[in-house]
Amino acid sequence: MQCKVLQRTGLERLHLASDGIPLVTQAGLAVTPLAGPGDVEQRTQRFVDRHLAARPDARVAVIPDGPYTLLAPHA
């Protein structure tokens, strides 16, 4: 599944916010770490807010079967 996601999104569009995985480790994964001040919830909310401010027609989908949130441009 990860390969299919990477194929569709690319590394620059797949972000990870985690307080449990060191940034050095995250940098070695196939993700773009959401680094910065604050805890994981604050960093994630800031990212989502910026994404939606830059793309007013974007949609956000939360997938309940796992820890996934998708931000997609309006189609």
Description:
The chain is α+β, with helices and mostly antiparallel strands and 75 residues long. The protein has one domain (2-72). The protein has three helices and four strands, in the order H-E-H-E-H-E-E. It has helices at 2-9, 23-27, 40-54, and strands at 15-16, 32-33, 59-63, 68-72. Strands 1-2 form a two-stranded parallel ribbon. Strand 3 (59-63) and strand 4 form a beta hairpin. The mean pLDDT is 77.
Topology (elements, then pairings):
Layout: H1 2-9, E1 15-16, H2 23-27, E2 32-33, H3 40-54, E3 59-63, E4 68-72
Parallel strand pairs: 1-2
Antiparallel strand pairs: 3-4
Compact description:
The chain is α+β, with helices and mostly antiparallel strands and 75 residues long.
